[in-house]
Write a structure and sequence with these properties.
Largest sheet of chain A: none
Order of helices and strands of chain B: HHHHHHHHHHHHHHHHHH
Largest interface: A-B, 38 and 53 residues
Oligomer: heterodimer
CATH architecture of the largest domain in chain B: Up-down Bundle
CATH topology of the largest domain in chain B: Growth Hormone, Chain: A
Number of helices of chain B: 18
Helix content of chain A: 55-70%
Distance between the termini of chain B: 7 Å
Number of strands of chain A: 0
Shape of chain A: elongated
Order of helices and strands of chain A: H
Strand content of chain B: under 5%
Largest sheet of chain B: none
Shape of chain B: globular
Helix content of chain B: over 70%
């Protein structure tokens, strides 16, 4: 009986169905800009509104 | 033929940069976090459907109820099929929900909005909320609190984006920012939001990856990690987890922490107006500050839990939270600065509680089925979503019936919340490491995890 812990055998380059090429890096970069930019946009609008209302 | 959605189809290369994963997780949480901005549609909906506050309020309540139910029901499915399949399923439900709701708005059928946004969208909320959590913890075994804090911060931050975006879209499509123009812009706004969310969630599902079986973070050797007192070395299945006292103690902890947060959120605007006589516009600014506190708490407190330990963090949320509630009840009326500061910290603890719970579950039950266990625990959120407003509003109504006014209306509710937090504190104190009798055999876990990465 084999008592070693089973480990999945996956190529070093990862799953062949989902390669990490230039398209992946482009989408990943744009997505990062969109989510971080969106968060900063929403955050700054809320801070400006809150401060303006309190000080006004 | 292998599907491109399965876990085995999205294994990353061995030298993959893990920092591409949090934006993918944030993508879905920012989209579904729109639910916290639903209040911007409340008045246009009341006018469009000629319905009362309660009828329109049900849309949000159904969505949150479905969130808890679907995360519990579909948790094992999410765990089995991996993050991409779950993100696609969640995104589909969420976007279809928006389109069905648009049809309801266009035809004047409120039940279609209940069905679309509430039921179908709510299922998307539950699946989407838990979909990236266990994957993130596998990518950040050295800092699970930071990882889950990043994603769950997105759920709080979704409203910060959706709220101004929805107002601007309604004004753009309706031809102005007057109430009747906002009503006219409702349908195209819902369709546009659905399309935007479809694109962003699809991009997130494209980017998400699970770690290579031989990957570990640079400089991190799991065998050399010194286990903290509450951290298990074993793995517990969801089926066994719900049979442990630890699961139910954490259920109580989450339920009471959320209930206490809702105690502030539910009446934030009228409460500050009653205490200090400020204008409605200034009160809206205070609500905006609370949403920042909610979002910030998710990231900051969850990250600190990697150093302090989850149990200690919850001691702080519940213990310090109870003291702050007491301070607001006894002295809050004396200083607006004290009031705003104390409520901001309480809300940050509310957000921190949400963001820290996945890592707490991982510490107690291992990473094996933590997504499904997290899904089951989120029923506490749904229960608190019903109980919290019920308690707060009943106390206010009883006070009004007794002829009370101003801060006196809210003080009894605050004492109830102090009691709730103290009970939660005791429940957290009682949490101990899970008995080994609940652990899965290590070989079985490894075999199942290996099979999930290889099946084609």
């Amino acid at each position: 009986m084999n008592d070693s812990t089973p480990v999945a055998h996956v190529p070093d380059s990862g799953s062949p169905q989902s390669p990490v090429g230039s398209a992946y890096k482009a989408v990943g970069s744009v997505l990062t800009v969109v989510v971080v930019g969106g968060l900063l946009w929403g955050l700054s609008l809320t801070v400006v509104k809150a401060v303006a209302i309190f000080t006004g | 033929m292998a599907s491109i959605l399965t876990r085995s189809a999205i294994v990353a290369p061995k030298n993959f940069n893990r920092w591409l994963i949090p934006p993918a997780a944030l993508a879905i949480h920012l989209c579904i976090g729109q639910v916290y901005a639903f209040s911007v549609f409340k008045i246009p909906f009341m006018s469009h459907f000629d319905a009362g506050e309660v009828s329109i309020g049900w849309i949000f309540s159904i969505a949150i109820l479905m969130l808890g139910i679907s995360s519990a029901v579909f948790g094992p499915w999410v765990e089995k099929n991996g993050p991409r399949a779950s993100m696609v399923a969640a995104g589909t439900c969420w976007v279809v929900g928006f389109f069905i709701a648009s049809l309801g708005i266009m035809t004047g059928q409120l039940w279609l909005v209940y069905l679309g946004y509430g039921v179908i969208g709510g299922i998307g909320l539950g699946i989407g909320y838990i979909s990236p959590v266990s994957t993130l913890m596998k990518w950040f075994p050295d800092r699970p609190g930071l990882a889950t804090g990043l994603a769950i911060m997105g759920f709080g931050g979704g409203a910060l984006i959706a709220s101004p975006m929805s107002n601007q879209l309604m004004a753009l499509f309706g031809g102005g920012s007057d109430p009747e123009h906002l009503v006219a812009g409702l349908t195209p706004t819902f369709v546009t939001l659905g399309i935007v969310y479809a694109v962003v969630i699809a991009a997130g599902a494209f980017v998400i990856r699970v770690p290579h079986p031989e990957w570990t973070p640079k400089g991190f050797d799991p065998s050399k990690v010194k286990a903290k007192p509450m951290q298990t070395k074993g793995n517990v299945s969801v089926r066994n987890a719900i049979r442990t006292p630890q699961f139910w103690l954490l259920w109580v902890v989450l339920f009471l922490n959320v209930t206490a947060g809702i105690g502030i959120l539910e009446n934030a605007a009228p409460m500050i107006q009653s205490y200090f006589g400020i204008t409605a516009a200034a009160a809206a600014g205070f609500v905006g500050l609370l949403s920042i506190g909610n979002m910030g708490g998710r990231f900051i407190w969850s990250t600190t839990s990697d150093y302090l330990g989850r149990k200690n963090n919850y001691m702080m949320y519940l213990g310090v939270g109870a003291i702050l509630y007491l301070v607001v009840a006894l002295f809050g009326g004396g200083s607006i600065f004290l009031f705003v500061l104390a409520t901001l910290i309480i809300i940050s603890f509310y957000g921190g509680g949400f963001a820290t719970i996945p890592a707490y579950l991982k510490d107690l039950f291992g990473v094996y089925q933590v997504g499904a266990i997290h899904g089951a625990l989120l029923t506490a959120w749904s229960a608190a979503g019903v109980a919290g407003p019920l308690i707060v509003n009943s106390v206010v109504e009883a006070g009004e019936a007794a002829g009370k006014e101003g801060p006196e209306l809210y003080t009894p509710g605050m004492f109830i919340m102090v009691g709730a937090l103290v009970i939660g504190f005791i429940a957290n104190v009682l949490v101990r490491p899970v008995s080994e009798k609940y652990f899965e055999r290590e070989e079985d876990v490894a075999a199942k995890q290996a099979a999930a990465l290889e099946e084609n």
